[in-house]
């Protein structure tokens, strides 16, 4: 997994993917978690259900945007990337590439 983010500052950006991806009810408790950086500023929680549907929650102290990638070998080329953030006017954007 690759987590890309700009210079870490004070705003907490919470990206909760299932809320954007489906009309399912709130997911159950997420059983797995880990900080992704030595400063404990990037926190990932996840779990999966019986159908192997994965749920992720990413909490990041950032300047307004965060990118989160998935790849078979942990490298950026060929990865699937989710990008989300907050514009200066307060509106939120979310993109998958």
Automatic annotation (TrEMBL):
One of its GO terms (biological process) is octopamine biosynthetic process. GO terms for molecular function: copper ion binding; dopamine beta-monooxygenase activity. The gene is Moxd2_1. One of its GO terms (cellular component) is secretory granule membrane. Transmembrane segments: none annotated. It comes from the Eukaryota. Residues 40-97 form the DOMON domain. It comes from Eudyptes chrysocome (Western rockhopper penguin). This is DBH-like monooxygenase protein 2. InterPro entries: DBH-like, DOH_DOMON, DOMON_domain. Keywords: Monooxygenase, Oxidoreductase, Signal. The lineage of its organism: Eukaryota, Metazoa, Chordata, Craniata, Vertebrata. Residues 1-23 form the signal peptide.
């Amino acid at each position: 997994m690759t987590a890309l983010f700009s210079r870490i500052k004070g705003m907490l950006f919470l990206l909760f993917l299932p809320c954007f991806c489906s009309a399912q009810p709130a997911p159950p408790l997420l059983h797995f978690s880990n900080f992704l950086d030595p400063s404990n500023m990037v926190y990932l929680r996840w779990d999966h259900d019986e159908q192997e549907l994965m749920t992720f929650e990413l909490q990041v102290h950032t300047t307004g945007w965060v990118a989160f990638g998935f790849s078979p070998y942990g490298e950026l080329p060929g990865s699937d990337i989710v990008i989300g953030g907050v514009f200066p006017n307060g509106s939120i954007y979310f993109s998958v590439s």
